[in-house]
Amino acid sequence: MSIVAALELGRRHKNEAPIEIPIIKASRDGYNIIKHKLEDLPFEEFWILLLSRSNKVKSTHLISRGGITGTVADVKIILKKAIENLASGLILVHNHPSGNLKPSQSDIELTEKIKAGASIMDIQLLDHLIIGDGDYYSFADNSRL
After folding, report:
1. What is the pLDDT of residues 87-96, one digit of tens each?
2. What is the extent of the structural domain holding 97?
3. Higher pLDDT residue, 29 or 7?
4. Distance CA 64, CA 108 (A)
């Protein structure tokens, strides 16, 4: 009976459609993958998207949840997640509950720190997205990386 059940499970698994893994080709792709988690939140959250060498999304991770005006994103925790998941690429994402898409000075400084640390580990920081009011700001699109 166990053998019949195992064979049936194998047959079902073989007939399932393969799961399509999203590929990041532009900042809008990253935004579309994560926006549903961050839009309309009354507080800030900081997420990362970890990518393979071919820019396929390996995983997404919540790094921190904060208050109305900010959240803490620790460089060491972000790089640890990237290393543990053998990521080749990294996209930083957080929201501004105010809707203001302009990066703060702390957003800029954090991006520079993570870019420098990731570079040492041969991980490419591809973008930092700020999400607010149904739109986003991309550091890459605005030549800030």
Report:
1. 999 999 999 9
2. 22-138
3. 29
4. 17
Segments in the chain forming alpha helices (H): 2-15, 27-38, 75-84, 105-120
In a domain? residue 117: yes
Query: String of b and e for 115-134 (b: at least 16 CB within 10 Å)?
Result: bebbeeeebbbbbbbbbbee
Residues whose CB falls within 8 Å of the CB of residue 135, separated by 6 or more in sequence, listed in order: 101
Of the candidates 14, 74, 68, the one whose C-alpha atom is nearest the C-alpha of residue 48 is 74
The partner residues of 47 in beta bridges, in order of sequence, read: 62, 93
Give me 33's structure tokens.
């993958």
Question: Could you tell me whether strands 124-132 and 89-95 are parallel, antiparallel, or unpaired per DSSP bridges?
Answer: parallel
User: Is 143 a member of any domain?
Assistant: no
- Is residue 70 domain-resident? yes
Reported as a single tens digit per residue, the pLDDT across 85-142 is 999 999 999 999 998 999 999 999 999 999 999 999 999 999 999 999 889 999 999 9
